[in-house]
Design a protein that fits this description.
Length: about 110
């Protein structure tokens, strides 16, 4: 299977939701078993809440900050982050072109 960032980006924003009144800023590319891959490209602010699965972020473009728990990390294209299931995290002060691949996998509650 192959994913194209440009093809998924062209489908953003997705449908409006409570957290995303202007349309969802993530698009699922594919899934297999417990694993799924999404393109995440918030605009203005990041309303996400902790997820039930472990996740990896691969920053494809843009720069900003990612708060994971109490730690704040600067990021730019090419950086990768691990966020364990249930951990509060949020992107902030990011550029308008920010986009990242997100990989979710494993059991609800994360791997032990």
């Amino acid at each position: 299977m192959k994913l194209s960032m440009s093809e998924l980006s062209a489908r953003l924003p997705g449908p409006p939701s409570g957290a995303w009144p202007q349309g969802e800023r993530f698009m699922r590319g594919f899934a297999h078993g417990t694993m799924s891959v999404e393109l995440y490209a918030p605009r203005g602010h990041d309303p996400q809440t902790p997820h039930a699965q472990d996740e990896l972020y691969f920053v494809m473009q843009g720069r900003g900050e990612l708060r994971i728990g109490d730690a704040c990390h600067d990021f730019e294209a090419g950086d990768a982050f691990f966020v364990p299931a249930g951990m509060p995290h949020r992107f902030g002060n990011f550029t308008d072109d920010f986009a990242a691949w997100v990989v979710f996998w494993g059991p609800q509650g994360g791997e032990q």
